[in-house]
Write a structure and sequence with these properties.
alpha/beta; 6-stranded mixed sheet; 11 helices; 17 strands; 28% strand; globular
Length: 366
């Protein structure tokens, strides 16, 4: 029997939560990391039918691709929208969601779709980037106080880059200020426009040290009101991202790809917009609802775009631009990844992982 904390580490190795979109709610939704688990069930959506199935199969862990809680929750009750989560907590069942972390991860949802089309030379369709956990502090110090202020900032936790400390940059300039009658400036006089030589100091501050560094700045700076800028830094794009784009070997038409796709995903029908008889040299995929990436697909000069669902007017736009769009319905573009996820967990742990038989896309062909 595995500790849940061990399973969580294995899941994060498969689909690192740090890759997830910032709006997403991934990871452990409910449960005790110290609990023991021996059997899990994997599904796309944690519905009442899946909850019954998990109970009948005596599963202590539910791997729900879509998080059953998305937005902020103020109440978890037995008879409200969060009733399934309440029931799981009451029975000691843990719920974990990988969602967009699994989409972006190597070998995840989008690679599964790319494999279904046999895409070669693939790369992410749209690289992801995000905010770092660092800020840049910029302040302005008279020359006579530069060493005292710099030392105070570094002692408070600023100025670390890798294995280096006390990292900063200084440049000379001229400051101007006009103090009102109520001020007592450390340099010059009140009610007088002063022009003072100062040194611009720049340094990095970890997010958890911001309060301490700002307090050190105000304590060490000789001015009544030291001027400073605090800028959150953006991380450069990483080599991972949403969707995949690649090339297709040989002469293959959109119709041929659709037939292959239905076999690989185990579905009977898809929705198609645009010409399905044309040759496809370059194709893009993105699981779920990915109409927002349509412009990226067009810019990449793809011939075909495979996704779960797309808005009406986006499909018209795509067809007008000569792009063939294939939609499987939302969860049908994701469900096949559960088999991969289950097998990777079995390989990494002794956990028994079942695939839900009750989990289905809410839409069907009537």
């Amino acid at each position: 029997m595995n500790k849940l904390s061990t399973i969580l580490k294995a899941l994060d190795a498969i689909a690192p939560l740090s890759l997830a979109e910032p709006w997403d709610n991934v990871g452990l939704i409910a449960g005790d990391p110290g609990a023991r688990v021996s059997r899990a069930i994997a599904c796309i959506d944690y519905t009442p039918a899946v909850a019954r199935e998990a109970r009948e199969q005596r599963c202590e862990l539910v791997l729900a691709y879509h998080p059953p809680l998305f937005d902020g929750v103020k109440k978890i009750t037995a008879d409200g929208p969060s009733s399934l989560v309440f029931d799981a907590i009451a029975r000691g069942v843990a719920i974990y969601s990988p969602h967009t972390a699994l989409d972006i991860a190597d070998g995840g949802t989008n690679d599964m779709l790319a494999d279904a089309l046999a895409l070669q030379d693939r790369r992410p369709l749209k690289l992801i980037s995000g905010a770092t956990q660092q800020y840049k502090l910029v302040t302005f110090v008279p020359e006579s106080a530069i060493e005292a202020v710099s030392t105070a900032l570094f002692d408070a936790g600023a100025g670390h880059i890798g294995k280096y400390s006390s990292c900063g940059f200084r440049s000379e300039g001229t400051a101007t200020f006009f103090g009102s009658a109520e001020t007592r400036p450390a340099v010059g006089q009140s009610q007088t426009l002063e022009k003072v030589p100062e040194i611009r100091v720049e340094t990095l501050v970890p997010i958890e040290q911001v309060a301490a560094v700002l307090a050190a700045l105000k304590h060490s700076h000789p001015y009544e009101e030291p001027a400073f800028d605090l800028l959150q830094l953006a991380a450069p794009p990483r080599s991972v991202g949403m969707g995949r784009i690649g090339t297709l070997p040989g002469d293959v038409t959109a119709d041929m790809l659709i037939n292959r796709l239905k076999r690989e995903l185990g579905i009977d029908h898809v929705l198609a917009a645009g010409d399905t008889s044309k040759l496809v040299r370059r194709a893009a995929v993105c699981a779920g609802s990915c109409g927002k990436l349509l412009d990226d697909v067009l810019a990449a000069k793809a011939d075909l775009y495979l996704t779960g669902e797309m808005r009406h007017h986006d499909a018209i736009k795509a067809a007008r631009c000569g792009l063939t769009v294939v939609c499987t319905l939302h969860s049908n573009s994701e469900r096949a990844v559960l088999k991969r996820l289950a097998q990777r967990l079995r390989d990494e742990t002794t956990l028994e992982v079942l695939l839900s038989q009750a989990d289905q896309d809410p839409f069907r062909v009537a």
